[in-house]
Design the sequence.
């Protein structure tokens, strides 16, 4: 862990320093993060073209829609697994590259497999508990559901940094994730909500820019619903494919960087608290009687008077 104290994101943050650290880290590591994200986005976008929703768009019966969606269950699962792997690779690069100059994109790809299976297991467990929490939140109106969603996302963001810095043991990781997320709870909650809004806004703006060449087709869809199928075909257009991948690549590294900031902030606070608690060392003071020779009994062998 000592090496990680040299990580540029390791410090006690406030919201301003967290935002500055996010931008500085993103700016300084833009090229490798962007190149990795472009490749990842292209693969995910291409994988998504396997799922053809044309037949579903014309259906109005929910049971028929559910039945047809079963065909896409396995492709959607594969895409989700690929997405999780890419997230693991990005997180590994962000965590390890600043403290190990030998760590590059290739080594991050290879070493990320060590964390992938434990990460997948924890994600499945978190998905189950998160779904229950969100369902319960709905009973407390929309605010409760929003609170549950943000809390689940907060837990999710801590998982990979904890595993990559402190070990891959699943039970220890789960315990540690809850400990760090709850230690500075309201700050973590507020930061995650703020970052999410920031990422969503930036993503919407970039997606809008990427869709500008195809604005005419989408406008036709608004006035003529029958053109919806034609608009759906745009996802297979090479230009749309490339532009949307570039837009996604600009925002893809943000969440792993945010996750690292949250973790290192929590760890730095924890280390600072430990430094403040110093062990009390009992001071040995000189007593007056220590300045004089100890009295001996008459029969003591070391009694100087005995020799007389």
Sequence:
């Amino acid at each position: 862990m000592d090496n990680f104290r040299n990580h540029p994101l390791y410090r006690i943050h406030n919201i301003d320093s967290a935002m500055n650290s996010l931008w500085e880290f993103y700016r300084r590591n833009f090229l490798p993060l962007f190149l990795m994200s472009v490749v990842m986005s292209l693969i995910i976008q291409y994988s998504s073209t396997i799922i053809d929703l044309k037949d579903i768009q014309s259906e109005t019966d929910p049971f028929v829609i559910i039945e047809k969606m079963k065909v896409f269950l396995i492709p959607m699962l594969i895409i989700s697994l690929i997405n999780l792997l890419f997230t693991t690779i990005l997180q590994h690069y962000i965590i390890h590259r600043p403290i190990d100059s030998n760590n590059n994109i290739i080594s991050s790809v290879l070493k990320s497999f060590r964390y992938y299976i434990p990460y997948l297991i924890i994600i499945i467990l978190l998905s189950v508990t998160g779904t229950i929490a969100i369902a319960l939140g709905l009973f407390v109106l929309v605010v409760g559901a929003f609170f549950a969603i943000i809390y689940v996302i907060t837990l999710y963001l801590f998982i990979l940094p904890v595993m990559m810095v402190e070990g891959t043991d699943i039970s220890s990781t789960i315990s540690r994730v809850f400990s760090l997320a709850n230690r500075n709870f309201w700050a973590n909650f507020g930061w995650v909500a703020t970052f999410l809004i920031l990422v969503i806004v930036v993503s919407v703006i970039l997606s809008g820019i990427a869709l500008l060449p195809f604005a005419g087709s989408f406008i036709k869809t608004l006035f003529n619903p029958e053109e919806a199928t034609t608009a759906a075909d745009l996802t297979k257009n090479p230009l749309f494919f490339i532009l949307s991948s570039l837009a996604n690549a600009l925002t893809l590294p943000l969440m792993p960087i945010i996750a690292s900031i949250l973790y290192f902030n929590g760890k730095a606070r924890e280390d600072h608290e430990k430094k403040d608690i110093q062990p009390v060392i009992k001071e040995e003071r000189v007593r007056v009687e220590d300045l004089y020779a100890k009295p001996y009994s008459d029969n003591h062998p070391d009694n100087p008077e005995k020799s007389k």
Notes: The first helix runs from residue 15 to 28. The chain has one domain: 7-117+153-275. The two ends are 68 Å apart (CA to CA). The chain has 13 helices and no strands.
